[in-house]
């Protein structure tokens, strides 16, 4: 299984310009998480801080018991071997063919023979759909192929954590869906921990197990997809629908006068833009048939079902409706509009879950002024589901 990443109070600024402050979350091991936020909110800076390319001002980022913010250069070098990184443009060496690009980390960080390197490189190229393209230069292939080559290179050291920066950058919607499918297939096969930075609404709604959002230099929310997709938090709801109506403006944040003027405009019939209002929990993309069950999705659903009784009634009903008939029978629930069911046994003791299971205690979540309190989460086990409509 992939490594757990525990982030506590992470803060970063450039000079007097604060990028984000007091970010606290845990990336659940072996699950696919996505960090959302308007352009310029420091999502890519967050990725670079996680691997030590940028040093935070304060806070902790703990991986396998090592705090990369304060550890030695030698320790940081070793921890970085746990990571695979897919940069926005693939970051391939233009003078090397795909084979040598993918082989580069193996030659740099291991003492493997060329025979062993060849076996690994061809295996990763095949895994990413690039079989037979090993002799091509980056300039001779499409943007989608360069992304896949970058992913193949990120996989050669068998990473426990894979960071992906704007995977849809330079790709059309169809190729973005294909690369998203590839992420899920890879996660199903190696159970690595993924963090994807994106502002692609379709990817955010259908791919990750967990969603987080940065806004106004803070982490607004982080948790299972079901929690954020049913959230009434204004900034989350606005972003996931891509509309002008809400607290996010052209310069990231609107003042009250602008919000009032826009509201009057919308009430007068002006369209707020964006996609149609989408309520409920849309289906999550599944691994390609023949690929193993994605255990990260199973673990996420475990937590969601444990916290169902803490969610608002409308969210409970939406989640129940998103379950397959087999899952509804397994949990003994059924859709019943108007009378949402209380699902999941209440935990013993104080009921406060461990944030080391990928959840953020409510008193540590950065809040938008006037926003609602996010639910907290826990864990329990659920058997894999292979039926239609499952997660």
UniProtKB/TrEMBL annotation:
Keyword DNA damage recorded: no
Residue ranges of domain ABC transporter in the record: 5-241
Region: Disordered, residue numbers: 275-294, 329-391
Keywords associated with the record: ATP-binding, Nucleotide-binding, Transport
Keyword Cell cycle: no
Gene Ontology MF term list: ATP binding; ATP hydrolysis activity
SUPFAM superfamilies from the UniProt entry: P-loop containing nucleoside triphosphate hydrolases
PROSITE patterns named in the record: ABC_TRANSPORTER_1 (PS00211), ABC_TRANSPORTER_2 (PS50893)
Bilayer-crossing regions: none
Recorded superkingdom: Bacteria
InterPro entries in UniProt: AAA+_ATPase, ABC_transporter-like_ATP-bd, ABC_transporter-like_CS, P-loop_NTPase
Name the UniProt record assigns to this protein: ABC transporter ATP-binding protein
């Amino acid at each position: 299984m992939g490594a757990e990443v525990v982030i506590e109070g992470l803060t970063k600024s450039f000079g007097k310009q604060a990028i984000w402050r007091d970010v606290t979350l845990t990336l659940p091991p072996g699950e696919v998480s996505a960090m959302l936020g308007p352009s310029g909110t420091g999502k890519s800076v967050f990725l670079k801080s996680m691997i030590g390319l940028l040093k935070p001002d304060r806070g902790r980022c703990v991986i396998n018991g090592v705090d990369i913010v304060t550890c030695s250069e030698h320790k940081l070098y070793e921890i970085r071997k746990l990571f695979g990184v897919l940069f926005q443009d693939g970051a391939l060496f233009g003078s090397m063919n795909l084979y040598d690009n993918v082989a580069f980390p193996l030659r740099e960080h291991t003492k493997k023979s060329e025979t062993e390197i060849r076996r690994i490189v061809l295996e990763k190229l095949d895994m990413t759909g690039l079989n037979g393209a090993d002799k091509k230069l980056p300039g001779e292939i499409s943007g989608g192929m360069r992304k896949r080559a970058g992913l193949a290179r990120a996989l050669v050291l068998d990473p426990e954590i894979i960071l992906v920066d704007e995977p849809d950058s330079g790709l059309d919607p169809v190729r973005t869906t294909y690369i998203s499918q590839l992420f899920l297939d890879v996660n199903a096969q190696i159970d690595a921990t993924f963090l994807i930075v994106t502002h692609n609404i379709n990817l955010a709604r259908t791919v990750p197990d967990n969603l987080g959002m940065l806004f106004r230099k803070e982490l607004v929310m982080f948790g299972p997809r079901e929690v954020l997709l049913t959230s009434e938090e204004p900034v989350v709801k606005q972003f996931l629908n891509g509309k002008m109506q809400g607290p996010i403006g052209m310069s990231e944040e609107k003042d009250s006068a602008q919000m009032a003027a826009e509201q009057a405009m919308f009430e007068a019939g002006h369209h707020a833009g964006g996609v149609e209002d989408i309520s409920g929990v849309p289906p999550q993309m599944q691994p390609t048939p023949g690929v193993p069950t994605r255990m990260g999705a199973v673990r996420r659903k475990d937590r969601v079902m444990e916290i169902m009784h803490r969610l608002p009634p409308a969210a409970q009903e939406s989640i129940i409706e998103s379950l397959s008939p087999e899952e509804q029978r397994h949990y003994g629930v059924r859709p019943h509009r108007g009378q949402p069911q209380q699902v999941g046994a209440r935990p013993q003791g104080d009921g406060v879950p461990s944030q080391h299971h990928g959840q953020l205690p409510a008193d540590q979540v950065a809040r938008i002024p006037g926003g609602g309190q996010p639910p907290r989460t826990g864990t329990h086990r659920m058997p894999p589901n292979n039926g239609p409509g499952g997660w």
